[in-house]
């Protein structure tokens, strides 16, 4: 019985991953406006009914796609305690990841950009932004507490500044990849934030 249940879960996970990949491909090719459950099912080799079973609606599908793309964008951070080191690794790793942007990361940025003109996407990306900002605030607050971040740093405003810069670099990378050399950029950006946040900053 245990083996049968595990096999069923594996089949479910395989189908869900295939559907999310199909959805990402369609968004990358034609934008979110052209996305339908029927087209996703057809692209993945499944029925529309299975797409509905997994995600409920187009909105639910886009939410899952956004979450799956953002989670794990910078691997290895989950093993680090909150603080300055984790924050700097996030900044460096985020820019590095933009250099080898995979399909779902690219689609996440495309959906984020489209949320400016599609109200139905706003709640999804408001939630995703809050998760990102909460992590940044946690690192800044922990850094202030342990003395590695200057006590004059304002966690809320600084988190928004870091968030805005990283997302802005990502959007520019999406729009004009040749302009953004991530390997050259990651060092100076990370060093800038290290200087700005440490106790030695003026």
From TrEMBL:
Keyword DNA-binding among UniProt keywords: yes
Regions recorded as binding DNA: 36-55
Pfam families linked: TetR_C_6, TetR_N
Keyword Isomerase: no
Keywords: DNA-binding, Repressor, Transcription, Transcription regulation
Chain ranges of the HTH tetR-type domain: 13-73
InterPro entries xref list: BetI_C, Homeodomain-like_sf, HTH-type_TetR-like_transc_reg, HTH_TetR, Tet_transcr_reg_TetR-rel_C_sf
Residues in the signal sequence: none
Name this protein carries in UniProt: TetR/AcrR family transcriptional regulator
């Amino acid at each position: 019985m245990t083996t049968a249940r595990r096999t069923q879960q594996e089949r479910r996970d395989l189908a869900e991953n295939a559907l999310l990949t199909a959805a990402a491909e369609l968004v990358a090719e034609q934008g979110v406006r052209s996305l339908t459950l029927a087209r996703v099912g057809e692209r993945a080799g499944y029925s529309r009914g299975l797409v509905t079973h997994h995600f409920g609606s187009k909105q639910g599908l886009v939410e899952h796609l956004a979450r799956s793309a953002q989670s794990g964008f910078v691997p290895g951070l989950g093993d680090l305690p909150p603080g300055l080191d984790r924050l700097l690794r996030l900044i460096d790793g985020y820019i590095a990841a933009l250099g080898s942007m995979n399909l779902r990361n690219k689609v996440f940025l495309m959906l984020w950009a489209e949320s400016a003109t599609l109200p139905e996407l706003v709640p999804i990306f408001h939630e995703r932004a809050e998760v990102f900002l909460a992590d940044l605030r946690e690192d800044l607050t922990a850094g202030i507490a342990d003395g590695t971040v200057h006590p004059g740093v304002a966690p809320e405003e600084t988190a928004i500044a870091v968030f805005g810069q990283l997302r802005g670099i990502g959007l520019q990378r999406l729009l004009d990849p040749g302009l953004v050399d991530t390997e050259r950029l990651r060092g100076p950006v990370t060093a800038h934030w290290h200087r700005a946040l440490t106790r030695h900053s003026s």
